[in-house]
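Example 355, ligand adenosine monophosphate.
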Amino acid sequence: MGLQHSNKPVIATLGTHSALQILKGARDEGLPNLCICRRGKEQPYRSFGVADEILLLDDWSDWDDALEEELLRRNAVVVPHGSFVAYLGSERIHHMRAAYFGTKGILEWESDRTKERQWLEKAGLLLPEVLKKPEDIDRPVIVKFHGAGGGFGYFIARSPDQFYEVKNRKYPDEDDYVIQEYIVGVPLYIHYFYSPMTGELEIMSMDKRYESNADSIGRIRAADQLASNIYTSYTIVGNIPVVVRESMLPELFAMGERVVDVSKKICGGKGLFGPFCLETIVTRKLHVYVFEISARIVAGTNPFVEGSPYTALKYDVPMSTGRRIAREIRIASEQGRLEDVLDEYPAMYGSALRV
Ligand code: AMP
């Protein structure tokens, strides 16, 4: 195949997580795309026919300077997604010379629990209380080990004794954890998009997660749950669309706006832009507790390849978050404002990356 050099930016992403909609979105916006895949994992990108070109790596560690040269040569704009940091590592991303959609500086605020909390607190959001030590446990808490991937390895405790009982038996050598007040309510993941071009914050869609085994425990009766001594885990298997009560929308918009405003102050420059997600629990009194922020496209946007009820109101074409990213890059490119949507406008592009 081989892409010809064109003045249009090429949307490049890693073949995993939310790549299908990112690649499809690029195509819908008339931009060429490139899927960088681990060998053996390329079948979905071939089968669904969304990739213009698939570049295979034996391992993510093969992502090297030569590959970045190639990306520069092709006018590629790399679009990070939720698995991006996990696979490439923050060091590689930090030094990445290829054009990068978004602000790299925000990753540091997103990945460090203390900094993340400072950011969200400054934005005036309601956060679950963090207990300093196990002895302080006087209510249900959720214990999260650092680096626990996808909710696996969390556990619930109601007392210091219960905490130590599980901790010593299951995680005797792990000491990097946070003890968070357990909020009783329903999970709600709100997907936003902030455009640095227009200064507008959009709500793209919302989801809840389909988690194993948390979402299966209710399928057996309480007596059986007790008898089988099940420990709750939150391993993400998939995502389910949600639409909220309309009266909640003003608050959800305001929360997103404050997060964006504060991001400009804490990490300087453009701050957070593009897609991001507030991960919340909504209580029966409709208090919205934010337990995490994701500063990139989340997999919860995947059910909305054809757009969501919200984007259907705003756009006259099916608008996924992937497509919204491509549209932002396309418009920036057409207006000669690509530097507004890239981390650092790479000097070496000169006049190459433009339309
Ligand atoms: P996470 O991996 O941070 O997305 O969280 C995994 C699961 O834990 C999600 O289903 C959340 O609903 C749940 N969760 C995380 N923090 C809390 C909390 N403070 N209270 C209640 N549920 C939580």
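Summary: The pocket of adenosine monophosphate is lined by residues 128, 142, 151, 154, 180-183, 187, 209, 211, 234, 279, 281, 291-292 (CB under 6 Å).
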